[in-house]
Specification:
Elements lengths: L2 H17 L3 H10 L13 H7 L1 H23 L9 H19 L1 E4 L6 E5 L5 E5 L2 H6 L11
Antiparallel strand pairs: 1-2, 2-3
Helix pairs in contact: 1-4, 1-5, 2-4, 3-4, 4-5
Length: about 150
């Protein structure tokens, strides 16, 4: 892997990881001890959080914007440090796209006792990836985006 590919991979990974921080969920869980996904639209975004608490909704909006900015700013440092140079624009673009993807497609471990992972979007849609046949049978007949019991 050449240095340019390494920089782009680092920009993509860092952008994705920053984008996947679910600030709305974390703030409501920390301050209100509730799960924001269980009310309103089921989304973890600022609008749904604001239905629970306008102050937390504003904090969610600011933190979500900040994580996108941070991903792009970090990627701008991968080039020559000048965000207007051509060597910084591609990593910045990759990081921005990865942050958007990270925000839309969160990867979180499931709380089920068996080995499983849940792909979640901010709207609460989930697809459970199961590691054993028992869980597949338990979730049989459910649509792909419905959480398993």
């Amino acid at each position: 892997m050449n240095p340019t590919q390494q920089i782009l991979a680092l920009a993509a990974v860092s952008g994705y990881l920053l984008g996947s921080i679910p600030f709305g969920y974390l703030l409501v869980r920390a301050f209100l001890k509730q799960d924001v996904r269980s009310s309103g639209s089921g989304n973890i975004g600022a609008t749904n959080v604001a239905r629970k608490s306008p102050k937390l909704g504003l904090m969610t909006l600011l933190l979500d914007a900040l994580k996108g900015f941070a991903a792009v700013w970090i990627a701008s440092q991968f080039g020559d440090g000048d965000p207007t140079s051509a060597s910084s624009l591609l990593p910045m673009s990759v990081a921005a796209l990865a942050a958007v993807v990270g925000s839309a497609m969160l990867v979180a471990a499931s709380s089920s006792p068996s080995p499983a992972f849940t792909l979640s979007s901010p709207s609460g849609e989930q697809q459970v990836l199961h590691a054993d046949i028992q869980d597949k049978e338990r979730c049989a007949g459910r649509p792909c985006c419905a959480p398993c019991p």
